[in-house]
Design brief:
Elements (H helix, E strand, L loop, with lengths): L3 E10 L6 E11 L4 E5 L6 H9 L6 E6 L2 E2 L10 E4 L11 H11 L4 H14 L15 H13 L5 E5 L7 H18 L2 E6 L2 H7 L2 E6 L2 E6 L1 H5 L3
Helix pairs in contact: 2-3, 2-4, 3-4, 4-5
Bound molecules: adenosine-5'-diphosphate (2 copies).
The site of one adenosine-5'-diphosphate has 11 residues, from strand 2 and helix 1.
């Protein structure tokens, strides 16, 4: 588990006359194990903020620290972060097991260790009976669980979700939401979840960050945020 500190985080795309400031000094302390949702309209800077936490986007000013370590000081391979995207891409020619194991093989983990981690993820996501299948033999919901499995096996301290429910039909959206909640409970990780959907935010969040035009307008529990006049 790890806390996330955002200290006066600033982002602008481009330079000089073409500079486009998109994040204007965000401050927030996210606790160990907390589930925080970043909500706000399209274009307000949610994805940019999340990608900066993931270390996928350069920070123009301020600082982001995870578990007390400044993100940009940590080698990408050593960052205990897993990101789940809107569109899950699995390797079509690999089995479910191989899809989940691939990232660990690259990191040269021992075969037994890989087996243990994949088994644990498969148990949590109820994929145990599907490990030898290929992605094309799975339902949409099962494929999505494999994609989450690939994140879980890395044993991350922090889970980042970028609108993972947006492209799903209503039934799969509810099912996946419940899975994400179960995952958070079971693993006790810190979660940062981006969405433009207020209902999703209220259902999932312990605390909500409300963004608007690159600024953090509110940060509080769903009750605090949505009881305001
Ligand atoms: P959200 O996730 O809330 O929809 P984004 O973080 O994607 O918002 O975008 C915030 C702003 O930054 C938008 O105005 C967007 O056009 C701009 N933006 C995002 N990515 C880039 C980029 N790579 N280059 C230039 N501008 C970008
Ligand atoms: P999202 O809100 O999920 O980021 P977008 O359609 O805003 O979706 O952005 C899709 C991709 O295009 C992102 O990788 C983002 O960085 C990039 N992007 C968004 N706006 C701009 C922009 N104005 N200039 C260049 N790239 C952009």
């Amino acid at each position: 588990m790890a806390s996330i500190s955002l200290r006066n985080v600033v982002k602008q795309y481009g330079h000089g006359a073409k500079a486009n400031p998109v994040i204007h000094g965000v401050n927030a302390e996210i606790q160990d194990g907390e589930f925080v949702v970043i909500v706000g309209p399209s274009g307000c800077g949610k994805s940019t903020l999340l990608r900066m936490v993931a270390g996928l986007e350069e920070i123009s000013g301020g600082e982001i620290a995870i578990g007390g370590r400044v993100v940009n000081d940590v080698e990408p391979a050593d960052r205990d972060i897993a990101m789940v995207f809107q569109n899950y891409a699995l390797y079509p020619h690999m089995s479910v097991f191989e899809n989940m194991a691939y990232g660990l093989k690259i990191r040269k983990l021992r075969a037994e260790d890989i087996q243990t981690r994949v088994d644990k993820a498969a148990r949590i996501l109820e994929l145990g009976h599907l490990l030898q299948r290929k992605p094309r033999e799975l339902s949409g919901g099962q494929r999505q669980r494999v994609a989450m499995g690939r994140a879980i096996v890395r044993d991350p301290q922090v889970f980042l979700f970028d609108e993972p429910l947006s492209n799903l039909d209503a039934k799969l959206r509810v099912q996946t939401r419940l899975e994400i909640q179960g995952l958070h409970r079971e693993l006790g990780v810190t979660a940062l979840f981006v969405t433009h959907d207020q209902v999703e935010a209220m259902t999932l969040a312990q605390r909500i960050i409300v963004m608007n035009a690159g600024r953090m307008e509110q940060f509080g529990t769903p009750e605090e945020v949505y009881s305001r006049p």
